[in-house]
Amino acid sequence: MVVAVDRESLLLRGTLDMSLLALLARRPSHAYGLVQRLRDHGFEQTSYGTVYPLVSRLRRLGLLDQELEPGAGGPARNVLTVTPDGRKSLDEWVEQWRSVTDRIHTLLEGTA
Q1: Residue 55 pairs with which residues in a beta bridge?
Q2: Domains of the chain with bracketed CATH
Q3: How far is it, in rounded angstroms, from Cα 19 to Cα 42?
Q4: What letters, b where the CB count within 10 A reaches 16 and e where it falls short, cover 70-94?
Q5: Percentage of residues of the chain with pLDDT beyond 70
Q6: Between the CA of residue 30 and those of 6, 39, 77, what are the distances in Å?
Q7: Is residue 33 within a helix (H) or strand (E), and if so which, with residue range?
Q8: Confidence (pTM)
Q9: pLDDT tens profile 20-52
Q10: How far apart are CA 70 and CA 80, in angstroms?
């Protein structure tokens, strides 16, 4: 039997890229800020160790840009922004997500 936390991790695995792009499309941020924002949205189990490799991959794919900005009273931070290709990918992911979740919702309603 799959434990609820493990099940949530499995579901998140395919959606964190889309979630990170969505957050950054609303407001640029550094990776640590993304972790905080995900936690603010109820994804408490998300860690910097999970987000940083995803951010690195999204940058390599050309979906995110990174710019060094001075920190407020501290060290400079790498602020992430969504590129035009990233915005296009996000739009495609959202469309696919809605299609899949609509089908799952229909399936679940049919089994009730």
Answers
A1: none
A2: 4-111 (1.10.10.10)
A3: 12
A4: eeeeeeebebbebbeebeebbeebe
A5: 94
A6: 27, 15, 7
A7: helix 31-40
A8: 0.86
A9: 999 999 999 999 999 999 999 998 888 899 999
A10: 13
